[in-house]
Write a structure and sequence with these properties.
163 residues; mainly alpha; two-stranded antiparallel sheet; 3 helices; 2% strand; extended
């Protein structure tokens, strides 16, 4: 059996030996020192939300999800989860689970809850599972359960909206 693939790659660069296909004029706006501003409707910009692109802006669970994620993220910080669950994979895990962004957390919340319930995290320097402090485990399970329930509710709202 012969398999073929066609790969199309496009790249934009300003460094070329030929004139650009579309003429452009570089605009260099002057920075006024303000990182935030008001739009025409009087809303602060850039608008900060943790779930842009994951859920529709009209999803009624967004504000509760924001709060629940922030609470859970603080509990994960208390548990020092970010010491291992980071892109450079310091504990060479076979399957690295990232929880740094709301989208990662929403996609992996069931796995996180299972690992915490079963005392499979954190790992010590030798890679051996260690139980969390009981009060920290309870706080992480409570905040994780609240986040997990809201993720499910938001997903159900999205599914109903599509239908």
């Amino acid at each position: 059996m012969i398999k073929t693939a066609k790969i199309v790659i496009g790249q934009f660069t300003e460094r070329a030996n030929w004139a650009p296909l579309v003429a452009t004029q570089h605009i260099k706006p002057r920075f006024d020192g303000s990182w935030m501003w008001m739009d025409r409707e009087g809303r602060i910009q850039p608008r900060v939300t943790l779930f842009d692109g994951l859920f529709h802006p009209d999803n009624p669970y967004l504000s509760k999800l924001d709060f629940a994620y922030r609470t859970m993220a603080l509990r994960m910080r208390d548990g020092q989860c970010e010491n291992c669950h980071m892109p450079n994979n310091p504990m060479p895990m076979r399957r690295l689970v990232l929880m740094h962004t709301p989208a990662h957390a929403a996609g992996e919340i069931a796995r996180l809850m299972k690992a915490v319930r079963e005392d499979r995290m954190p790992l010590d320097d030798a890679g051996i599972e260690q139980p969390l402090d009981p009060s920290l485990k309870r706080a992480l399970l409570e905040s994780g359960a609240a986040f997990e329930a809201l993720v499910q509710a938001a997903k159900q709202w999205e599914a109903a909206r599509r239908n």
